[in-house]
Give the backbone structure.
Amino acid sequence: MSIVVQEVTKLYGSQKALDNVSFSVKTGEIVAFLGPNGAGKSTMMKIITGFIPPSSGSVLVNGTEVSSDDPEIRKKIGYLPENNPLYPEMYVREYLSFVASFYKPGRSAKENIENIIGLTGLTPEAGKKIGALSKGYRQRVGLAQALIHDPDVLILDEATSGLDPNQIIEIRNLIKEAGREKTVLLSTHIMQEAEAVCDRIIIIDKGVIVADEDKNTIYSKINQGKQIIKVSFDRKISDNELLSIPNVSNARLTDKDFWLLESDSAEDIRPAVFSFAVKNNLTVLSLQKEENNLEEVFRHLTGM
Ligand code: ADP
Ligand code: MG
């Protein structure tokens, strides 16, 4: 099943949360919807799942237009909302049966619930109250309720936020597993998450799509951009001296006596930094390439 978003704009009062957004997700793809807080990710997901209407534009799921009063859409889509609202007083198994009953899955309902409990690793916790679970397990319950009716499309809004590193890996693996058979759109503000889970990355900033590319294409674009080296020396030195290093276009001192050296060249500047240190009788205490974090990606893609 595919998702097609056509020229969607969403206004909250006079604020444009989404500005003429168009993209599509093909059957079987896992796509990341990446952007900083406030970019419009949750708004887009609420529109795709029919929870709120767009101000203009439309969303098609498998060719059918989504509208907020169509209950059929809920059957096709599994949705993990951002704050994963759950009933803390309900028991896990009871809650999942309750959710499943909305979809009338028929006689296999009970077996199906047990399958999902197994798939999401909830077996040891299934008899507990939701309110008693750790954040990681609550997130699994959220994922289980999104999967319970075996939807073809999964919409996951910040599925790993607030989890510890081990839980993040487990939930990402679950998503990848589910994504083998389903069309998945997941939102995140974390570049590494998009990279770890997805085939394609759509970047949204201030309600506007600024990139929509295959993962490898995005990375090759970034690598053609700025290169940043973080270096520290055993004594103080001026930015003017550092700017004499070939290809270094900018030198900034951070609060902890680390220099950030920028280069627009594709050539690795680290050897030149070492030669510079030797020539000036400096000792290099540390030297590392800065990873391209989300901020760098944005600066590169939005030209800011
Ligand atoms: P993201 O999920 O990327 O963090 P959101 O879609 O939640 O972004 O929000 C996008 C923008 O729309 C933000 O500026 C937010 O404050 C605003 N916004 C979101 N929901 C509402 C609402 N119900 N009423 C008014 N403004 C909203
Ligand atoms: Mg959000």
